[in-house]
Amino acid sequence: MKPVIALVGRPNVGKSTLFNRLTKTRDAIVADFAGLTRDRHYGNGKLGDHEYIVIDTGGFEPDALSGIYKEMAKQTRQAVAEADVVIFVVDARAGVSSQDHDIAKYLRKLGKPTLLTANKAEGMIEGGQFTDFYELGLGEVLPVSAAHGQGMRLLVDMSLELL
Ligand code: GDP
Ligand code: MG
């Protein structure tokens, strides 16, 4: 069985861009689940010697009570349940948000292996200061740039090392 990696984070941090980087093709397998507003997207990936499955998710609001956000939270929870490891994506440029704290709290409680990743870090990776993200209580943060394809090998290596 290939390991399953779920990409989780608030909207607009670059999860789908990362998904496209980590999967060879852009035509992800789309899984339809009755009643869900947004589908989860599955893709096959291979980087170096590693083969894996990636699940993209919509933006996650753990305490969303209604509407589309509730559905997105539900499908994200399902994706996380299916995953062997979670990549929690935050925005290196925007810094820590209250939504990030909510998601971090959920992931800490869950106890599933989680790698904290600060995306959009192009031009910041060398000597960048990412220590603010330590307050999320998930340990080290790995800076990457999905848009520029920086840090991808390390991201996959470190994620799969958590297994
Ligand atoms: P999602 O909502 O988390 O899936 O985020 P998207 O993948 O849709 O990306 C949201 C926005 O961030 C888009 O405008 C992307 O082009 C931009 N983005 C994604 N990755 C990067 C990155 O590495 N660097 C920069 N500067 N922008 C990025
Ligand atoms: Mg997306």
Automatic annotation (TrEMBL):
Q: Which domain of life is it from?
A: Bacteria
EngA-type G domain boundaries = 3-163
Question: Where, in this chain's numbering, is GTP 1 bound?
Answer: 9-16, 56-60, 119-122
Question: Self-association or partners: how does it assemble?
Answer: Associates with the 50S ribosomal subunit.
Its biological purpose is as follows: GTPase that plays an essential role in the late steps of ribosome biogenesis.
- Family, similarity comment: Belongs to the TRAFAC class TrmE-Era-EngA-EngB-Septin-like GTPase superfamily. EngA (Der) GTPase family.
Entry protein name: GTPase Der
Gene transcribed to yield this protein? der
